[in-house]
Amino acid sequence: MKTLFCSLIGLFFLSCNAQKEAVNKVEAQLFAGELVRVENFPTQLITPRNVDIWLPENYNEKLKYQVLYMHDGQMLFDASNTWNKQEWKVDEVVSQLIENKSIDNIIVVAIWNISEIRHTDLYPLKPLSSLSKDEKELVLTELRNNNFPTDFESKINSDNYLKFIIQDVKPYIDSHFSVYTDAKNTAIMGSSMGGLISMYALCEYPNVFGKAACLSTHWVGFRDFKNTPIPESFFNYMALHLPSPKTHKVYFDYGTATLDASYLNYQSRVDEVLQQKGFTTNTYKNLKFEGADHSEDSWQKRIHIPIEFLFGKK
């Protein structure tokens, strides 16, 4: 096991070799496999942030790997550096699945969030923009009553966030690692707002992403309130834009405690939309986890399920 942290300066990893030994000595026991960090990945599309690339033990350039893109990258591997001291343990879970031959070989690309702008980076723009004038006024009233900025829509940057993944990050991954580059072998995954943006990515870029996993998807957008039009805006968008179940797979799930409890009223609509689009139990899941709350600890306990659903050996 080893870890490699390196900064991207311009378009070249000039400092990578110089840093390798010192970082390995400090961090070597933290991860299964190898973690490559690109600090402040350069982009003109969004605020730069770190991107981690996780490689499984015995990563081999002679083999080809599928790719899983994940959001909230700083929460995935190392609880000692997270705000709540929780983590997804992605490296451990994926390593075990590979070792058990439960899934095909994959690498994980973990895109960090910036907490102050996470909501505007991950909130899908087109569903919100589709609301009627009266619906938007209802949302604005709720925002004002709860001290949200009322110019929220103008600040949403989710379209550029997806372009960052597709135009900046993916070409780097495709050219620097031994991976399949087609949609069939490329997935995207996240929780809460990360669930929303993963759904949005699958719909906006079906030729890039062939599968998506959306855990504890934040259908309420902000917070649940009476007569909210927000969840239905997502379902209407999905009904129009979900790709074909003949070529794509999608996974949803939800708990029943803390924030996840606010999603319970909307799960029948998730099933309705997916089934109307022709998705079956072979191509979609919408699973309930009784007692599970809205936290990394809860997602960690079940991430093997969506990962195996998306990447399970055929």
Radius of gyration: 19 Å
**Share in helix:** 25-40%
Average predicted local confidence, pLDDT: 89
In CATH terms, what is the fold-level topology?
Answer: Rossmann fold
Assess the beta-strand content as a share of residues. Answer: 15-25%
Side by side, the strands of the main sheet go: 1-2-3-5-4-6-7-8-9
- Number of spatially distinct domains: 1
In CATH terms, the superfamily is Alpha/Beta hydrolase fold, catalytic domain
Major pleated sheet: 9 strands, mixed
Distance between the termini: 29 Å
Structural class: alpha/beta
**Overall spatial form:** globular
Brief overview, please?
With 314 residues, the chain is of the alpha/beta class. 37% of the residues lie in helices and 17% in strands. It has one domain (2-128, 156-311): Rossmann fold.
In words, what does this structure look like?
- The chain is an alpha/beta fold and 314 residues long.
- It has a single domain (2-128, 156-311), classed as 3-Layer(aba) Sandwich (Rossmann fold), CATH 3.40.50.
- Helices cover 37% and strands 17% of the residues.
- The protein has 12 helices and 9 strands.
- The chain has a 9-stranded mixed β-sheet, sandwiched between helices.
- Helix 1 links the parallel strand 1 and strand 2.
- Helix 9 runs parallel beside helix 10.
- The chain starts with a strand and ends with a helix.
- The model is unreliable at 1-29 (pLDDT under 50).
